[in-house]
Amino acid sequence: MTSRLHTCKRALLTPLVYLAAIFLLFEEWLWYAGARLMAHLARVPLLRSLEGWIGRQRPYAALAIFVLPALLLFPVKVLALFVIARGHLGSGLCMIVFAKLIGVAAVARLYTLTRPALLTLGWFARWMYRFIAQKERWIGRLCATRAWQQASAMTRALKAGWCAAWARVRPRGGRTSSRPTRVLRRFIAMWRTRRR
Fold this sequence. Notes:
The protein is mainly alpha-helical and about 200 residues long. The protein has helices spanning about 1-40, 45-55, 60-85, 90-120, 120-145, 145-170, 180-195. The mean pLDDT is about 80.
């Protein structure tokens, strides 16, 4: 009876673990993309000085700064749900996606800046390392599945094909553009003159 219960529990939880792992992989991709974007924006002198100030904060001040984007974007998400409830599904979903992208980018950059101070808080460091360990276990289980390995192989093949196609179109040597690019530009110019 116990083994049957364990098998049933495992069968119910496995899809949820895979779904959580996919969500965490997407979050991780958004995290790194957002951090790179915010690092480029940080080249603006005013933002650079603001980042210097954030990096010098004490642990609890750094924690307050770290959670600030989530608190500021919460009303936007509530407004988006209100918009969806009023029948504007597209607008509401766009607001949620926009808030998610902005929030993840801001939190990623703030975490990079406040991480040294945050890790001095014992409870924060413990929970962060537990979360990272659990995330790695879930992602490891997902990556060990046959479906994931097949999807990864297909993605690598598509990326290799895209790179090969781009290498054929990209200008080589000292030329300003390749023949397909020049033909495409000529076609676009002819199409624009016909529309006038």
